[in-house]
Amino acid sequence: MKLRFSPLYSLTGPLIWCIWFVALYGGLSVLCVRVANAGASGPGWVNLVLGLLTLLAVLTLSVLAWRSLQELRQFREADDTRLYLWLALAGQLVSALAVVAVGLPVVYLPPCL
Questions:
Q1: CA atoms 69, 96, 98, 30: torsion sign
Q2: Can you tell me the distance from the alpha carbon of 67 to that of 3, in angstroms, rounded to the nearest whole number?
Q3: Chain segment 20-44, per-residue pLDDT in tens
Q4: Does 112 reside within a domain?
């Protein structure tokens, strides 16, 4: 399946990271206010929900990066589409690494310190 490329496609990785970041920390704040003693029992269902959100973001970014790489292999001529594909691939990979790096403490730390 061919994708339609535009300069805006290169922003999908950082945009998904931004949405994930706001959802993660906004959700954490709301859950900590709603459940006052969530940190007392250690990592629990709050960490599970936030971990699943992180996993979903990493999988989405990985699929987008894979699709960008597959499309990049098909383009042999140097044109704007190839540049947008490289930018999209780099943005999606960097965003996936940022999601893993920022989301890793969700696994180990208690949710509401």
A1: positive
A2: 9
A3: 999 988 888 887 777 765 445 545 7
A4: no
Domain count along the chain:
1
Q: Is the model's pLDDT at 3 over the cut of 90?
A: no
Residue 19 or residue 5, greater confidence? 19
Q: Evaluate whether 68 touches 51 at the Cβ level (below 8 Å).
A: no
In the chain, the amino acid numbered 6 is S
CA distances from 28 to 48, 86, 112 (A): 11, 34, 8
> 36: domain range?
10-107
Residue 2 located in a structural domain: no
Residue 23 belongs to some domain of the structure: yes
For the chain, percent of residues with pLDDT exceeding 70 = 85
Give yes or no for a contact between 106 and 45, defined as CB atoms under 8 angstroms apart: no
Residue type for position 42: G
Instruction: Say if 89 falls within a structural domain.
Output: yes
